[in-house]
Design goal:
By secondary structure, the protein is α+β, with helices and mostly antiparallel strands. It has 7 helices and 9 strands. The strands form 2 sheets. Strands 2-1-3-4-5 form a 5-stranded antiparallel β-sheet, with no helix packed on it. A 4-stranded antiparallel β-sheet has the order 6-7-8-9, covered by helices on one side. Strand 3 and strand 4 form a beta hairpin. Helix 4 crosses helix 5. It is elongated. It comes from Blautia obeum ATCC 29174. It holds the Pfam family YodL. This is DUF4316 domain-containing protein.
């Protein structure tokens, strides 16, 4: 679940679970029946206000049941899971109250850290002695463990480890208080570094389309010899093998073309006519 949401869980509609329906927490405890998530299914997921209590949520659902609510009215044997800005708390709906339960969502043991809610004799890197788990917390689907020194107990500050056994909070005397919870949330959502006003990321040609408004113009920037050639026609520069050639006379080209046309039509070329005129003048 994301921050500030709650979920309603109810027993699955299976014959073997009928004897658990509408039973109080005390009755289950007397018969040593654990409240296990595998016996439940989610019937509703909704948003909640900051700091809203399970009592308030139950009253809101009784006033108006959402159209996508798939179960019966919230009653004894149901489970409410509140995720208040990433801090998850699980409640068993009892007859007249709500009982906080910690074993509903099983803690997954980390392969690298090897931590569970029952871990004892754990060695923390860089610290003397051994430690044991005395409390744990589920935040945004991840496990966090409060470690107490086995030899010195409360005379030494607690240490908070993540599910991989890494030290997240090195030294706290108040358990999972608001300060520790905030540090956990900060580790999950580190602040984004602000960019300066002059900073511009390097853009590819296809991204420059959004910057300049026309893809061809963006492509020209990488192809043209000068910025004054950016005119919507890609690559105005002359080919490299022609850049150093001497320019040909337009008049010469025109005369060559006329002579070619005259030869094809059987007429005398300009040179032949001029040659005959020279011969006549000599005579």
């Amino acid at each position: 679940m994301s921050a500030s949401q709650f979920a309603v869980y109810q027993l699955k509609k299976k014959p073997e679970l009928r004897n658990l329906l509408f039973r109080t927490y005390e009755e289950l405890a007397k018969d040593q029946i654990p409240v296990q998530m595998e016996n439940y299914e989610q019937v509703y997921l909704g948003t909640m206000k900051l700091g809203e209590t399970p009592e308030q949520i139950k009253k809101e659902l009784e006033k108006k049941q959402p159209h996508n609510y798939k179960g019966h009215a919230v009653s004894t044997s149901d489970v409410l899971i509140l995720n208040d800005e990433g801090v998850m708390t699980t409640y068993y709906v009892n007859k007249d109250t709500f009982i906080e339960i910690s074993d509903f969502m099983k803690v997954i043991s980390s392969e690298s850290g090897g931590l569970t809610k029952d871990t004892v004799g754990y060695e923390i890197e860089g610290k003397d002695g051994t430690w044991e788990v005395i409390d744990y917390l589920l935040i945004e689907g991840k496990n966090y463990f409060l470690m107490e020194h086995e030899q010195y107990g409360k005379d030494v500050a607690y240490v908070v480890l993540d599910q991989n056994g890494n030290v997240l909070v090195d030294g706290t005397y108040n358990g999972f208080d608001d300060v520790v919870k905030q540090k956990i949330l900060d580790s999950l959502h580190p602040p984004v570094q602000e960019q300066t006003e002059d900073y511009k990321p390097k853009l590819d040609n296809w991204q420059k389309y959004m910057e300049n408004g026309e893809y061809l113009r963006s492509a020209e920037i990488t192809e043209e010899a000068n910025y004054n050639m950016i005119d919507g026609l890609k690559n105005n520069a002359a080919p490299k093998d022609k850049k150093n050639r001497q320019k040909e006379s337009v008049l010469t080209k025109l005369n060559e073309k006329k002579e070619e046309v005259a030869r094809r039509s059987g007429q005398k070329t300009m040179r032949e006519v001029m040659g005959q005129d020279i011969e006549h003048s000599k005579k």
